[in-house]
Amino acid sequence: MTMPASGPQNDAGRQPVVIDTNIILDIFVFADAAAKPVRQALEAGELDWIATRPMRDELARVLDYPQIVPRLKFYQINAGDVLASFDRHARLLEVAIKARLHCSDPDDQKFIDLAVAGKTLLLSKDRHVLSMSKRLLAHGVRARAAM
């Protein structure tokens, strides 16, 4: 699979990407068709998914939400499977310095901070993040809902 040229490549030639929690759920829980190219690129080693411990902690918390637990059971997946997929594919970095750009949703700020620090592709379906697309682009970040 050929990835679009969108941002710097890391030293291994893989495109760095920050992935928000909703997209992670689409990839590893809901098998959303729009997220399939992301999953394929991760499995092929074409993406360098960078994340932080607070991002993983947020995912663990979300996987325990009352509206998510029945979905996990429906898809015959458990939270440990999803977290193991996160651990297998994501490269944990230190928490990034707060970016000059501020998101109206404080829960999304950590994704923006890391994407700005790395000038990466930022995958998110969050309207707060996507509404910042032009401002993020000025800082070297392409915010998109899908690849």
Automatic annotation (TrEMBL):
Source species, domain of life: Bacteria
Residue ranges occupied by any PIN domain in the UniProt entry: 17-127
Pfam families, A to Z: PIN_3 (PF13470)
UniProt-listed InterPro entries: PIN-like_dom_sf (IPR029060), PIN_dom (IPR002716), PIN_toxin-like (IPR002850)
PANTHER family the UniProt entry points to: SSL7007 PROTEIN (PTHR34610)
Protein's recorded name: PIN domain-containing protein
